[in-house]
Amino acid sequence: MTMTEMSAGSRTTQTPPPPSSAPPEDNELKLPWNYSFIDISRYLKAYMLAEKINASIDDAGFRGVIAQHSCEGYGSYKYFDKKLWLRAKTMRAIELRLNKREPSRVLDLGCGPGYFLYVCKWLGHHVQGLDLPDEDFYRNMMGFFAIPRADFRIEPHIELPKFPEKFDVVSAHQICFNGHKTSQLWGAPEWDFFIDDLRRHHLKPGGVIALEFNPEPAVGYYSHKLRDLFAAHGAEMVRGRVTIPI
Fold this sequence. Notes:
The chain has helices spanning 40-55, 59-67, 74-77, 82-95, 115-122, 136-144, 188-201, 224-232, and strands at residues 105-109, 126-131, 149-151, 167-175, 203-213, 236-238, 241-245. By secondary structure, the protein is α/β, with parallel strands linked by helices. It has a domain at 98-245: 3-Layer(aba) Sandwich (Rossmann fold), CATH 3.40.50. It has a 7-stranded mixed beta sheet, with helices on both faces. It starts with 39 loop residues before the first helix and ends with a strand.
């Protein structure tokens, strides 16, 4: 299986707000949706660090990219708020101690526009993205950030494409490739296969899998069976965030 034509799951869509070429950046202290006020001290640290990361980005170039996609739907528009997403992803990087690690290799599955990987890159890590092949906004953002990405559609019981080197961290945020909000929602067998594939083919010894789930109707972030599976893999679970050591 090659990486150039491979196609990370369908994404949900919502009614877009009025189109605009200007990102709706604000400076309020807003915690990411998947966190609680218990995390406030970590978020304050992320807030200050994200300001430094934001200053490294060519703002005119960024606005040029989003101007190309200003008439698209919510799937693109929600990512125009650069500062908000940098804060959220910086907080996740701090939670994973990526701000304290020696240079590591990081693979982000369903990488979207690449904010998490850009944060990791700024922190000195070697990064790789993977996402669906038919999302031009994501592709253009990843190109703007100068981050490599592979095109691939993640499916149940199908191994991920092989990369030349293994990774220290494999992450997935706001996961949709698991059949999110559909009747094909992944259960324990699908996740067990997925984790085993990462363990055998993609992660170095001592590596970590960092998952961040969307809540599911009538289920929450994950079922009791999934919680038991993750626990059997030695996972740490905090709300929708699951961290599995290898």
